[in-house]
Structure formats: structure tokens, C-alpha cells
């Protein structure tokens, strides 16, 4: 993304597509193997993104992601690292809000803080996500009592309908 000034003083924002580097996956793997997964995690924990790191190494983002996903150990470490990096995004919010000097900067900082907190909630939902809890309790906060709604007394079968001596009896439908 580039910003250029026009002669009339207005700024023009130009978004350029992501850079494509002409490196093979083997070359990218050798660069990433030299750095290791801990090096990639350090970059994330220092506030950079994977896109920025891929550009620094002059490899495509897809090559970086393929390298991470190729090994289950690297993939698991990257998940942990992203969860740890959510703290960085949360602290970035505080710095932006504290550093704003006027109403415009405060408004901009609020928007960015909202985005960073949203990002942190997606990376580490257990820590920064919305917590929806439903508590089920009975009367006065006690335990829940399960009831069928039927009376508990009078459920004994009629004496004439249940055979007691092991012989079957015929019970008439009219109740007699």
C-alpha cells in the first residue's frame, strides 16, 4: 500500500497486490529451516505479521504456510505462538488509545483497537473471546429437581391386573 501526494495537496491511496517472489519451495524451505519455527514465532511475538516476514525472507506467504503445515510439530508450535501473540494485539490497543492526542486520533485509535481486539479474540478465543455462560439452577439457587409432572402416589398397579402367582389373568377392558 502506498500513499502519494497530488499537486492539489490531497493524498491518493494506492493498494498494490502482494509481491510474488520467484523462489522454489526447496529454496524457501532451506531459508525457513535455517531460521526455524522459533525464529518465526519470535517475529510474530514482536508484532510483525507472517506476510511481513515472508517479504523479509523474499518468499511467498504460501511457501511459508506450506513449510509450517508440513510438520505437525511446527504446526502445533505455530498455534501456541499465535495464542501468545494475541497478547501483543491486546497491548497494541492500549498503546494506541493512550497515545492519541486529539479527537480524530482517538477515533482512529478506537477503530484500530476494536480491530486488534477482534483479531485477538479469533486467535485466542479462550482468553479474549466472548464468554457466554449459562447456569442452570433450581429454586433459590439450589440443585435442579427433575420431575415428570405425574403424582408419585397412586402409581401402584391394580391388584386384579397383575398376576401374583405366576399365572396370567385376563383383565377386562371395561375395568371389571
Verbal overview:
The protein is flat. The protein has six helices and two strands. The mean pLDDT is 76. Helices cover 52% and strands 5% of the residues. It starts with a strand and ends in a 48-residue tail after the last helix. A hairpin with a 5-residue loop joins strand 1 and strand 2.
Largest sheet data:
2 strands, antiparallel
If strands are numbered along the chain, what order do they take across the biggest sheet?
Answer: 1-2
Order of helices and strands: EEHHHHHH
Structural class: mainly alpha
Structural Rg: 33 Å
Our measurement of the CA-to-CA distance between the termini, rounded to an integer number of angstroms, reads 92 Å
DSSP, total strands: 2
Helical content stands at: 40-55%
The chain-level mean pLDDT equals: 76
What fraction of the residues are assigned to beta strands by DSSP?
A: under 5%
Oligomer kind: single chain
Provide the low-confidence segments as ranges.
Answer: none
Spatial shape = flat
Count of helical stretches:
6
Short description:
The chain is mainly alpha-helical and 176 residues long.
Q: In terms of topology, how is this protein built?
A:
Layout (H helix, E strand, L loop, with lengths): L1 E4 L5 E4 L10 H21 L4 H8 L3 H10 L1 H28 L3 H21 L1 H4 L48
Antiparallel strand pairs: 1-2
Defining traits:
176 residues; mainly alpha; two-stranded antiparallel sheet; 6 helices; 2 strands; 52% helix; flat
